[in-house]
Fold this sequence. Notes:
The structure is a single chain. By secondary structure, the chain is an alpha+beta fold. The chain has 6 helices and 4 strands; from the N terminus they run ααααββββαα. The protein has helices at residues 10-31, 45-64, 70-73, 79-90, 149-156, 171-179; strands at residues 104-110, 116-121, 127-132, 143-147. Strands 3-2-1-4 form a 4-stranded mixed β-sheet. It is globular. The two termini are 16 Å apart. The mean pLDDT is 83.
Amino acid sequence: MLAGMHQRTVAEHLAGLRMAVEAMARHATEAGLDADVPTCPRWTVRKLVAHQGMVHRWARANLLGEECSPPTWNAEGRQVDGIDEMLTGFVTRGTARFARVGPLRFDVRLTDSAPAWSLEVQPDGRVVTTRVTVDTPPEEDSAVVRGPAVAAYLALWNRTAPDAMDDPAGILTDVWRRRARVRWS
């Protein structure tokens, strides 16, 4: 353990969580549910509050050993936000997870929704994700992964078999499944 750090008690964790939830509720109320979230493009306070609620339901279910299915909680239409979070947030952090994979280019295209993303894995393992319009043709050397939003959400978060998506180049099977993992510990 690092110097100066100590184990927190359950009561300390609960007090910290309670303070954070109260602060978020206060700030959300002050800003209004339709206000934009400056650090999350295309998100409103309403979407952020809904997302945080899903995260807390997921954590509670896991702590209690209950069935948890965030994709069904996302049935209100928040799959695209989850896809965007994975592609622009999680996989763009650091270089270790995609080391020795690049260069690699691929697009993620949804068949039932407008957003699309272009990803480039650099030789050093860094991932650069660009949001593109569905009218933007993929780069000549890009593979394309295609499918409906729900299947894309589940496949990109590794919560279903990669064959749920049309993936002729095998990106999800050969690269993604082993390297794009989000761990909550």
